[in-house]
Each structure stands twice: as structure tokens, then as C-alpha cells.
Design brief:
CATH class of chain A: Mainly Beta
Organism (chain B): Frankia canadensis
Keywords (chain B): Iron, Metal-binding
CATH topology of the largest domain in chain B: Rossmann fold
Strand content of chain B: 15-25%
Radius of gyration of chain A: 20 Å
Number of strands of chain A: 5
Strand content of chain A: 35-45%
Strand order of the largest sheet of chain A: 3-2-1-4-5
Largest sheet of chain A: 5 strands, antiparallel
Number of helices of chain B: 16
Structural class of chain A: alpha+beta
Radius of gyration of chain B: 21 Å
Distance between the termini of chain B: 44 Å
Family (chain B): Belongs to the HypD family.
Order of helices and strands of chain B: HEHHEHHEHEHEHEHEHHEHEHEEHHH
CATH architecture of chain A: Roll
CATH architecture of the largest domain in chain B: 3-Layer(aba) Sandwich
Strand order of the largest sheet of chain B: 4-3-5-6-11-10
Structural class of chain B: alpha/beta
CATH class of the largest domain in chain B: Alpha Beta
Helix content of chain B: 25-40%
Pfam families (chain B): HypD
Number of strands of chain B: 11
Shape of chain A: elongated
Number of domains of chain A: 1
Bound molecules: iron/sulfur cluster
CATH topology of chain A: SH3 type barrels
Number of domains of chain B: 3
Protein name (chain B): Protein required for maturation of hydrogenases
Number of helices of chain A: 2
Largest sheet of chain B: 6 strands, mixed
Oligomer: heterodimer
Shape of chain B: globular
């Protein structure tokens, strides 16, 4: 039940004096309480837990992290001429 | 969905694993506090891909698992009362109380309803003014803002037939309790990402200093976990102990100030006993004095229930990282998710349930390091 997942805000509105949003989770839409991220705009991603947006998903930071992972180990691989994307003996990348 | 697949990329995972292998020179014991992380680690087999000797110890961060037996028994008692609609998250229904669970109470005619959000319980209360509607408010700091907002809205909207059975628990006091334990062999922590999305990271520098222990805020996808572990091992190997944030896309340092303000308004810190672990001072939230009229325990006066824990269940040791689930004799035999003896077998985030689901065919004993895992703590090196 600690699961919190990112979803895209597709509409914002109000119900019983509380700010609410329609959030799209990869095709499934849910009504979510937006009271804790009141300035979330349509198109932004929020992290949702038990029907509440608890945080914004910072897309720039997500992309930076992925880029850092992509660079990781590349230098060493260039130096010894290996294909960075190929799995090597002794690793079990396929298992993930 | 956005950034769920991207953070599961096997090629990038391979690189992170390679980095962890290249850095590791000796055994380390790292605790992931959060049950969601336990589930993800076991599901993706990440613990088995790590270099031999880097051991993941599964922490007490499953709210379903640590909700004290007496609160479960009170829930059962309240749910059985005529006129009550008892609302709960689904995974609480099979948590064993002393002898029965909410599911059994429901099958004998009680009105027990599973809701997705506590606000749904408030809607049920509004539609059934002649009934008493109780929501079972459990969880860590991640879930507490939802319950706090629901209580606040009940008050604001004048919904008088709604109350909350509260059993909130807090992560930082649990980390302190684990480090204070004489049997502690945890050398570093992955801090629960979504708890920090709410609370920020301000509570951790003090723990890092006091126990000289690295704490790395970590997310839940495979790459998040591997990056958290990579940064943790790098600190341990260098003899450093710092607070680090490996989940910046969801965790700003200040957390969510609006949620924190609401938590301060509605809740007050209290001592809380954790199932299987025992009392941890100042480790939970109760309703603040101004909101006590919404407290289901007071409204239904259920203070003296008599509890009886299963004598066979070793979930306390599992929750403290002293044994792994398959080391319990009941595991997979007398105790399964359909017939759980302890709460750690119920929730998807419970370590016993995660091992049952993903590890029955390949017992993890084979991948455990050959050497004694009771390595000295960093503080003593
Ligand atoms: S396997 Fe079952 S009985 Fe054993 S510790 Fe886990 S929950 Fe308790």
C-alpha cells in the first residue's frame, strides 16, 4: 500500500471545496486530490499515493539521472574497446 | 507509464551493477527500510545480482506488518458493531488479529468495505448519515497526509458520522531504534523515497551524525534501487557517512510543505508499539487534541481488548532483519498468503509474502555469502 506512482494531470477542478484532478496512469484515469500540489498544471506529472498527489515528478531531474546512468562506465568501456550495450560474461543483466 | 519502464532498463542496470562490483572490496549489510523497496528488490532479484557479501536486510517499513495487534483487535471489535461501516485499504483485511481477521468479520455479516482512498470513506459517510463510518488510518508518512486531509475535510464539511482509527508510524525513530539495538548489524540505510517526498530530507542529517551511518534516499524501480545501493557502497568503502539523495526526481529537500503543515495541524507525536518489534518512543502519530472527537478509539470506547499473538510466527525477527523469511519453520507450509500466521505474510510489501511469491523455487540460501555476515559496523572500523 506504500505504492506511489507517477501520472499525468489531464484536468483540474474542484469537488466539495477541495481541489481535485483527473490523472492519467498509462491509459487508466483516476480522480486524485490535488490539495497538496495545488499549482500542478494540466500536462505535468505528479506522484500519486492512495488518491492524493504527494509530489511533483521533476522530469528534468529524471532525464539527468538516466543520462548519468547512460554515461556511466562508458569511458572504461571505450578504453578497452567493448560494446557498452552488450552483456558480458559473468553478468546477469537479462535477469533484471 | 512515465519513468517506470525507463528506470527498469536492463542495459543501464548492468552498468550500475558493474560499478557496484568494481567498488565492493568487502561485505556490507545495507537495510532498505521500506517494504515497497523490499518487494521490488525480491521481485527483480536484485539482491541476488549484487556482489557476494553485499547483503540487503529487509527493514520494518511495511505499515500493514507493523500495525500493532491491539489496534487490529480494536478494528475487529469496531467493525462488528451494528450500524458501523468499516472502511480500510484492502491489504488490512487478511491481517490476523487475535484469532480472526477483518475478512472473517465481514463474512459473518459486518459491513467492511475496501476503499482506494480515505476520501472514498468520507463520501460513504456523507451518503449514509444514519450510519457510523470508520476509516482504518494506518501507514507511514507517505499515507498520513491523505488521512490528515480526510479528517480535516470531515471537520470542515461537518460530517459527524465519520471517525478515524489511527495507527500511524514514523520512519526516523525506527531507524534510531534499529541502530540502538544490541543485535544491530546494519551499516547503512536506503531511506524510503516516498516518505521523503512528503517529509523532505531534513530529519536525516542528525541520524547520519549520531550513528555515523550512511543514509541514501532511494526510489523503487530497479535502476533507483541499484543507484541507491551503488552510492551507499561507495560511501561505505570510502569510510564516509553522509546523507545522499538518489531519488531527486521525486524528493526535493524540503519535501511537500503543504502536506507537512496539514500533518502538524491534525496529528500529534505519540509513542507507538510496532507489531513484532515493540514500543518505540515518539514513533507514531495520533490525532491532535483538537481532533479527538474524530478518534474512533474514543468514540467506540474499545480500550481493553485482550490480545494473543501466534506463538509460531517469527515476524518480529524478520522485521528486525535478524532472520530471512524462509528461515521460519512455518514459511510456505502452515503460513502462506491464504493462511497467514503473521502480518508479514499478508501485505505485498511484507518480506514473507515477497519471498513466498518470488522465491519459493529458488531458496535464497544458495546465494548467501559464505562468510559471517556479522561484519563490524562502520562506526567501529
Ligand atoms: S513465514 Fe509466516 S509465521 Fe513465519 S515469520 Fe513470516 S509471517 Fe510469521
Amino acid at each position: 500500500m506504500c505504492l506511489a506512482v507517477p501520472g499525468r494531470v489531464v484536468a483540474v477542478g474542484e469537488r466539495d471545496g477541495t481541489s481535485m484532478a483527473d490523472v492519467d496512469f498509462g491509459g487508466v484515469r483516476k480522480e486524485v486530490c490535488l490539495q497538496y500540489i495545488p499549482d500542478a498544471a494540466v500536462g505535468e506529472y505528479v506522484i500519486v499515493h492512495v488518491g492524493f498527489a504527494i509530489q511533483r515528478l521533476d522530469e528534468r531531474s529524471a532525464l539527468e539521472t538516466l543520462a548519468a546512468f547512460a554515461r556511466m562506465g562508458l569511458l572504461a568501456e571505450e578504453l578497452d574497446g567493448r560494446d557498452p550495450a552488450a552483456p558480458r560474461p559473468g553478468t546477469t543483466e537479462e535477469a533484471i | 507509464m512515465k519513468y517506470l519502464e525507463e528506470f527498469g532498463d536492463p542495459a543501464l542496470a548492468g552498468r550500475l551493477l558493474e560499478q557496484i562490483r568494481a567498488t565492493t572490496t568487502r561485505p556490507w549489510a545495507i537495510m532498505e527500510v521500506c517494504g515497497g523497496q523490499t518487494h521490488s528488490l525480491i521481485r527483480h532479484g536484485i539482491d541476488q545480482l549484487l556482489p557476494a557479501g553485499v547483503e540487503m536486510i529487509h527493514g520494518p517499513g511495511c505499515p500493514v506488518c507493523v500495525t500493532p495487534l491491539e489496534i487490529i483487535d480494536r478494528a475487529l471489535e469496531i467493525a462488528s458493531r451494528p450500524g458501523v461501516i468499516f472502511c480500510s485499504f484492502g491489504d488490512m483485511l487478511r491481517v490476523p488479529g487475535s484469532g480472526r481477521d477483518l475478512f472473517q468479520v465481514k463474512s459473518t455479516g459486518a459491513d467492511v468495505r475496501v476503499v482506494y482512498s480515505p476520501l472514498d470513506a468520507l463520501t460513504i459517510a456523507r451518503r449514509n448519515p444514519e450510519r457510523e463510518v470508520v476509516f482504518f488510518g494506518i501507514g507511514f508518512e507517505t499515507t498520513a497526509p491523505a488521512n490528515a486531509m480526510t479528517v480535516y475535510q470531515a471537520r470542515r464539511q461537518g460530517i459527524r458520522n465519520f471517525s478515524l482509527l489511527v495507527s500511524h508510524v514514523l520512519v526516523p525513530p525506527a531507524i534510531a531504534a534499529i541502530m540502538e539495538s544490541p543485535t544491530c548489524r546494519v551499516q547503512a540505510f536506503l531511506a524510503a523515497g516516498h516518505v521523503c517526498s512528503v517529509m523532505g530530507t531534513g530529519q536525516y542529517p542528525d541520524l547520519v551524525r549520531r550513528y555515523r551511518v550512511p543514509i541514501v534516499v532511494t526510489g523503487f524501480e530497479p535502476l533507483d534501487l541499484l543507484e541507491g545501493i551503488r552510492r551507499t557502497v561507495a560511501q561505505l568503502e570510502a569510510g564516509r557517512h553522509e546523507l545522499d539523495n538518489a531519488y531527486p526526481r521525486a524528493v526535493p529537500a524540503e519535501g511537500n510543505p503543504a502536506a507537512v503543515a496539514m500533518l502538524r495541524e491534525v496529528f500529534a507525536v505519540t509513542d507507538r508499539s510496532w507489531r513484532g518489534i515493540g514500543m518505540i518512543p515518539a514513533s507514531g502519530w495520533r490525532l491532535a487534541d483538537a481532533y479527538q472527537d474524530l478518534d474512533a478509539e474514543l468514540r467506540f470506547a474499545v480500550s481493553d481488548v485482550h490480545t494473543a499473538e501466534s506463538t509460531e510466527c517469527r515476524s518480529g525477527e524478520v522485521l528486525q532483519g535478524l532472520i530471512k523469511p524462509h528461515e521460519c519453520a512455518a514459511f510456505g507450509g502452515r503460513c502462506t498468503p491464504r493462511t497467514p500466521l503473521g502480518a508479514t505474510m499478508v501485505s505485498a510489501e511484507g518480506a514473507c509474502a515477497a519471498y513466498y511469491r518470488y522465491r519459493r523455487l529458488s531458496p535464497p540460501t544458495t546465494s548467501r555469502p559464505a562468510w559471517d555476515a556479522t561484519a563490524p559496523r562502520t562506526a567501529h572500523v
